[in-house]
Amino acid sequence: MDTQTAVRVRFAPSPTGFLHVGNVRTALFNWLFAGRNEGVFILRIEDTDAERSKLKYEKQLIEDLQWLGLEWGEGIERGGECGPYRQSERYAIYQQYAQRLLDENKAFRCFCTEEELEQVRQAQLAHNEMQRYSGKCRHLSPAEVQDRRKSGAASTVRLRVRPGTVGFSDLVFGRIEIDTNQISDPVLLRSDSSPTYNFCCVVDDTLMKISHVIRGEGHLSNTHRQILLYEALGVSIPQFGHLSTILGPDGQKLSKRHGATSIEEFRKQGYLPEALVNYLSLLGWSPPGEGQEILPLDEIKQQFDLSRVLKSPAIFDTAKLDWMNRSYLSKIPIDALVEMAKPFAVRASLIPGQMDLQTKEWFTQAVDLIKTRIDYLDQIASEMAIVYGFDTDPPKLDAEAQDLLRNPEARAVALEFLRLVMERDILTPEIYREIVAKVKADTKQKGRNLFHPIRAALTGCGSGPDLEKLIPLYEEGSRLNLPRKVMSCRERLKAIFTIDDLRMTI
Q1: Cα distances (angstroms) measured from residue 411 to each of 91, 344, 347, 436, 454
Q2: 365-372 LR contacts (CB < 8 Å, sep 24+)
């Protein structure tokens, strides 16, 4: 890269839906490139699709970028010398540039109707020919154009594509060159005078002094057309870098069938922005340090280099993202984690919106107990289920617990544990240890043969958190006024066993 060139990059989303993984990765790489090169990151809104563009999507994408920490130095809500930064507010500029190209005979008016264009397309299809504009209106004289316009005939404005080849050296994919006979004369202005994407893009990137265009490889086919427009306008051409497509683990293009894809969905599920940004940065780029994966955003920015962006498609692996998010969660101090977990627990009706000190202390202990078992915060409800009362009457034990308690030796351990607990009013960790020692002596069982049946009898699960930490949560939680009932140890055992004959309810 020419170090003398002032780096100016842009992220230019269309507000027609929520930001998804693909375009956020594009925003991130632009942000990183600008930061690494002390450049400017610009946010531009491409809202020329009036029917589908919605203000709610624009507000959401702004909020999502800020949540991810991808602040922009110029553009929407920031201003700058190259505004306005919404394409819908720049129509007069596009009209001016289109007229300039018409005046210089680098563009022409096309009066072909949609029906005529469709007939040509069908004829080309029938003859296995490349589908392209026939050039019918390319050679209309000025007088013919004037007469047709006076008669009220609708027209589009098309670029007059030059003969020869057009190419560019992509910063990721290398040199890409094609013959211009593969390119139809592209429409710049539609018959209602609204501008097309490629035309707006070139005019805006020119006036906003964009030095590098970093975007998805789906835009590769647009780049040759845009270069022809840059040439026609007689302006400098930015450098281009196209990012490979993001695929799901099955090798297909990432979509909702692979799970969450929008930033809004990831936020609702309780992923951390720093973990999501870290993971997205590794989709198609690798840091220079061998084995580096957990990296803060500032460190990624210092190391980012387009030369390390890969040509091959990136695979979005939710399991890898979950692992990374869990790594970030594990480093959060418990008090901060509790505050982050609180809205998810309130939403799941696990705790009240306003907690007294006793309830908050209990909830803190519960979060601390299960924090290593969650990949994202929305899993709070499912992982804390073991702390609360059973959802069914009689309780439904998991398969491992059922198998354990059907084994005669394991069943004997569980029944002895039950008998001894029922002799006490409360079960504390100290009393629990005493009872376990007595069960061990009475049944001659030890290790997993001792503890697994006890766990199954008390929790209904074959595995789970440390029982010595879980037992106080049962006892203390049963005395709190919580939206969802917490059962004491005795209540839990009674729910699983029938007291009269000590038979299992399964």
Answers
A1: 79, 37, 38, 15, 9
A2: 365/469, 365/472, 365/473, 366/473, 366/477, 367/334, 367/337, 367/338, 367/341, 368/334, 369/465, 369/466, 369/469, 369/470, 369/473, 370/465, 371/329, 371/330, 371/334, 371/337, 372/326, 372/330
- The answer to whether residue 7 sits within a structural domain is no
Residue 362: Cβ-neighbour burial (10 angstroms; 0-12, 13-18, 19+): buried
Show the beta-strand stretches assigned E in 206-275: 212-216, 239-243, 246-247
User: What single letter denotes the amino acid at residue 454?
Assistant: I
| The pLDDT value given to residue 506 | 41
Of 380, 397, 414, the one marking the end of a domain is 380
- Which pLDDT tens digit goes with each residue over 47-79? 988 889 999 999 999 999 999 999 999 999 999
Residue 2 has pLDDT above 50, yes or no: no
Q: What is the pLDDT of residue 61?
A: 96
CATH code of the domain covering residue 324: 1.10.1160.10
452 shares its domain with 414: yes
Read off the pLDDT of residues 349-360 as tens digits, 9 standing for 90 and up. Answer: 999 999 999 999
Of the candidates 347, 366, 338, 337, which has an alpha carbon nearest to the alpha carbon of residue 483?
A: 347
Query: Do 458 and 365 fall within a single domain?
Result: no
**Nearest alpha carbon to residue 387 among 420, 418, 362:** 362
The answer to whether residue 270 is domain-embedded is yes
> Which position among 256, 311, 396, 485 bears the catalytic label?
256
- What does the block give as tokens for 298? 């500032």
Position 502 scores a pLDDT of: 41
173/373 Cα distance (integer angstroms): 42
> Do 24 and 64 meet the contact criterion of CB atoms below 8 Å apart?
yes
Between β-strands 212-216 and 239-243, what pairing exists: parallel, antiparallel or unpaired? parallel
**Contact predicate 15/44, CB 8 Å:** no
Distance between CA atoms of residues 142 and 139, nearest Å: 9
- What pairing do the DSSP bridges indicate for beta strands 212-216 and 107-110? unpaired
pLDDT higher for 98 or 261?
A: 98
Q: Using CA of residue 358, residue 364, residue 365, residue 366, what is the dihedral sign? A: positive
Torsion of Cα atoms, 178 then 184 then 189 then 195, to 10°? -40
CATH number of the domain that 422 lies in?
Answer: 1.10.10.350
Assess if residue 490 is contained within a domain.
Answer: yes
CB neighbours of 178 closer than 8 A, spacing ≥ 6? 165, 166, 167, 224
Contact 274/296 with Cβ under 8 angstroms? yes
Q: How many whole angstroms separate alpha carbon 331 and alpha carbon 353? A: 26
- Indicate the pTM of the whole model: 0.90
From 380, 399, 414, give the residue that closes a domain: 380
Q: Which tokens is 498 given?
A: 């029938």
The rounded radius of gyration (Å) of the Cα atoms in the chain is 32
What's the CA gap between 64 and 100, in Å, rounded?
39
Q: Which domain holds residue 467?
A: 388-506
256 is known as an active-site residue: yes
Q: Which residues contact 148 (CB under 8 A, 6 or more apart)?
A: 109, 111, 140, 155
